[in-house]
Amino acid sequence: MTKPEDIGSRLSRLDSYAVSDALDRSGLLGSDDGVVVIPREKEAEILDLARRIEETEGKIRTEILAGTPVRVARDKYGYHQLQRRER
User: Fold this and answer.
1) Is 41 exposed, middle or buried (CB count within 10 Å of its CB: 0-12, 13-18, 19+)?
2) How far apart are CA 52 and CA 54, in angstroms?
3) Given 3-state DSSP classes, what are the helix, strand and coil percentages for the chain, each rounded to the nearest 5?
4) Interval 27-76: pLDDT, tens
5) What is the spatial distance between Cα 7 and Cα 27, in angstroms, rounded to a whole number?
6) Would the N or C end of the chain have less CB density within 10 A of its end CB?
7) What are phi and psi of 37, to 5 degrees?
């Protein structure tokens, strides 16, 4: 059974069975910034979106370093659309 302290977060207030159950049905993704739990059935979709956002942010950084205003660079690459749910 996964214990809250095993995933390095402050989940100790939660019931360890609930945490274990959530992890059994989900993927765990972490970095120096934190940890997220992704439902397995949404994993491919979420990771694809995260990759697209990261690539777009790289393009925006390049534009900004070349002197383009942030708003113009974001608009050029449709950054705000990436952060919205499709309906």
Assistant:
1) exposed
2) 5
3) 60, 15, 25
4) 676 677 777 778 888 888 888 888 898 899 999 999 999 999 999 999 99
5) 12
6) C
7) -110, 125
CB 18 within 8 A of CB 1: no
Output the DSSP codes for 61-87: HHHHHTT--HHHHHHHTTHHHHTS---
Q: Which residue(s) pair with 29 in the sheet? A: 36
38-46's contacts with Cβ under 8 Å and 24+ in sequence apart are: none
Whose tokens are 């942030």? That residue is 70
Task: Find where tokens 């439902």 sit.
Answer: 39
Neighbouring-strand partners of residue 30: 35
Is the pTM of the predicted complex or chain greater than 0.85?
Answer: no
Which has the closest alpha carbon to 56: 73, 44, 68? 73
Measured at the CA of 44, the angle between CA 59 and CA 3, to 5 degrees, comes to: 110
